[in-house]
Amino acid sequence: MSNNFRQELVENLDKYLIGLDDTFAFKCRRCGKCCKNREDILLNARDLYNIAVKLNLSIHKIVETYCDVYIGDTSRIPVVRLKPRGANKACPLLNGDHCSVHDSKPSVCALFPLGRVALNDKDAVGMENISPVKTGYIMNPIQCSSSNRKQTVRGWLERFGIQADDSFFVMWNKTVISLSESMHRFAENKVTKKSLELMWNGIYSAMYAAYDIEKDFMPQFLENSDKILKLIAELEIEFNKIK
């Protein structure tokens, strides 16, 4: 997703939203274009877990081999992305023109040409309106494929085993937003760089790394998310006491 399109999306989201039973014209030609010249394939915890299971590697090894980890300019929390390779900035999981983890590919790739956004409930009032409570779908710009096959959003999601109302996606975004808001407050209150780095390490471990690929993902995510949110909240209380 280019920066220009991202900005356009933020400013005119309603124009790009597409309903579950709306149709779009797209047929993948498996040309690999959507896997090249990309520096924006961000992974969530479930993506990493699924890739680790597929390749039978630890999540640590997946991150070390295929990913970059950095602190988001806007979110101020750790972000994990697939690290492009070569002059054409190809996905590191690309084998020729084919995905080596096709049936376990990252959700942003499986969704293409659709995109997914976390939406607030417009009818909500009070603090709960701050956090995303439902999933919306958008059409990304398409620069490949044949346009001779009609698809519905619902059918496309079912084809790739993606739940239309994905509870993990909503919970992930709620957790990210809560942690991001806390980290911004720590920065505004002039918390030391060493303290920030310790918290970033804790967030990265809980959100991305601390998963056993021999166990089910969702219970681990719920436990990790609950622990890190409580820890960061407790640290905020302690820092406020000594300000």
Please give a structural write-up.
The chain is α+β, with helices and mostly antiparallel strands and about 240 residues long. It has two domains: about 5-165, no CATH class; about 170-240, no CATH class. It contains nine helices and nine strands. It has helices at about 5-10, 15, 45-55, 60-65, 105-110, 155-160, 165-190, 195-210, 215-240; strands at about 25, 40-45, 65-70, 80, 95, 100, 115-120, 135-140, 145-150. The strands form four sheets. The protein has a three-stranded antiparallel β-sheet. Helix 3 (about 45-55) packs across helix 4 (about 60-65), helix 7 runs parallel beside helix 9 and helix 8 (about 195-210) runs antiparallel to helix 9.
Q: Secondary structure elements and their pairing?
A:
Layout: H1 3-11, H2 13-16, E1 23-27, E2 42-43, H3 45-55, H4 59-66, E3 67-71, E4 78-82, E5 94-95, E6 98-99, H5 107-111, E7 114-119, E8 134-139, E9 146-152, H6 153-159, H7 167-188, H8 193-209, H9 217-242
Antiparallel strand pairs: 1-9, 2-4, 3-4, 5-6, 7-8
Helix pairs in contact: 3-4, 7-9, 8-9
